Amino acid sequence: MPTVDIDPDELRDLTGHDEKSDDDLIDDLFGLGLEFEGRTEDGEFELEFAPDRLDRLSVEGVARSMRYQYGDSRGVHVPSPNSPEWTIEVAESVPDERPYVTGAVVRDVDLDEEALESLIQLQEKLHATMGRKRAKGAIGIHDLTMLKGTAATEGNPTIQYVGVEPDEDRFVPLDSDQEMTPADVLEDHQTGQTYADLVSEYERYPAIYDSIGLFSFPPVINGRRTEVSTDSRDLFVEMTGTDQWTIDKMLNIVCYALSARGATLEEVRVDYPDREVVRPDLSMKTKTVAHDRIETILGIGLDPDEVIDLAERSGLEAEKAESEDGNLVYEVTIPPYRVDVLHPLDVIDDLGRAYGFNELEPRYPDIGTVGGRHERSRLERSVREQLVGHGFEDMLNFHMISEEENYERLDVSPDGDVYGAGEAATIKEPYSEDFTMLRTWVMPSLLMVLERNTHRSYPQNLAEIGFAAEVDESENTGVAESRRVGAVLAHHEAGYEDAKARLQALARNFDVALETPPTDHPTFISGRTAAVVIDGEEVGVIGEVHPKVLVEHDLEVPVSAFEFDLGALR
């Protein structure tokens, strides 16, 4: 778990509670979910925290949460940044691997030694967590007075985010006294050697210029010319990365920390070749949370006014509303620095902490229960036994797959309307090209098994009850998950009738009405393909696999197959 070092005296100062002893602070921190792990050599608290609450990576963020806990602050606070005076111009030459940039100007910040150490710690902790060791997002903080922007047509001083050749230009990096090219930095500078693998394969390296010259080589190192010190009062914060949302949220966390030091925020205009944005993005989102769900999860009865009070003491805001079915719900506003609130349960967790989990009285449930298999698990087991009884070998395949295997090799388009199509839930930074997304159906996995077993004798009758998913904005998570029943029959006389006979037997065993009206599907042969309709609802497809799909998988025998949603057998 990540840890953060906090000076208890500074925490008392920022919360305004000088009367709190160290033991009191430790107890209060535990109530927030921050566990005391000991003290550093300098006497600071070493705190372990949940990695989702990245806004608590600095003493400013921890103090903000404690002020809410003490009732000194309430509701959502959003700083009001001044209009932009500076512009970041993004050139066409920026490497495709790191195309995004964001930024803000911070004025009149009071940086004593403690504040500067806190800012540096926040920067490095964000790099290690949300920034994925600078691979996804990297932060550069500069002394604004040392920058000289190029004059722009609208009068705003402008800096450029560009791509440069490895040996194209020179600058003096931090912790160095000599000019170096970006290539030299990666080879000879200690920090450059540490982060060289992030950019060494790029044809052009990311670089940020003002009118004087190169002053930042993200995500590796800043230039010495703009180094921040305790004498710095105005700062320029820039962040580059592979994802705009990530660096924008990292920027919000830094801006809130500096705002807590009395700084004034100022927007920065970012000019991409095809669009313009203004940052920081301090817009807020809302979550709808049902009153009865709050009471069910927490196990207590609450008045609506109590829920609103708990939300405000959590740094949120809640308004009463009515759902479509007439039940009481709350529209909860989430502040810009919170990156962890993805689901109504995250809001309920905040409400529970504001109430005090130690205040909840344990009680026995009203009814006794005995552990057992979940209904879905029983269904899966029963279907699996039936499939084995019909001559199938049970498979367990990976849920992860590649776009090529899931779509292209089965002649299916992601935006098609056939079974197995649909937008996939993809991994933004996959470790392997073979596993870049969650599969949208199980058929690709079964055909991959057949492809790898061409050296074995036939028949090969394989079946799998497995997980599939596709993007669905109507779901809370944005992804619709399902369990599928898939089966393939591979032998020299495999045909549509073989697959249908086994599907009919399965339907009879579960007492459901099966229909197989003709349909078209690019994975299967036209005229030898049907939809699987169970109890009047179309839930799958059955047919003979198309020859071009067989050739794609190096299969020299016919294959018939079917796949449908497991829930249709309930």
TrEMBL record:
It catalyses: tRNA(Phe) + L-phenylalanine + ATP = L-phenylalanyl-tRNA(Phe) + AMP + diphosphate + H(+). GO terms for cellular component: phenylalanine-tRNA ligase complex. Residues 282-362 form the B5 domain. Residues 489-516 form a coiled coil. Keywords: Aminoacyl-tRNA synthetase, ATP-binding, Coiled coil, Cytoplasm, Ligase, Magnesium, Metal-binding, Nucleotide-binding, Protein biosynthesis. Its cofactor is Mg(2+). It is an enzyme of class 6 (ligase). Its EC number is 6.1.1.20. It is found in: Cytoplasm. GO terms for biological process: phenylalanyl-tRNA aminoacylation. Residues 9-20 have a biased composition (Basic and acidic residues). Its main location: cytoplasm. Mg(2+) binds at D340, D346, D349, D350. Residues 1-22 are annotated as: Disordered. GO terms for molecular function: ATP binding; magnesium ion binding; phenylalanine-tRNA ligase activity; RNA binding. SMART domains: B3_4, B5. Tetramer of two alpha and two beta subunits. Belongs to the phenylalanyl-tRNA synthetase beta subunit family. Type 2 subfamily. This is Phenylalanine--tRNA ligase beta subunit. The gene is pheT.
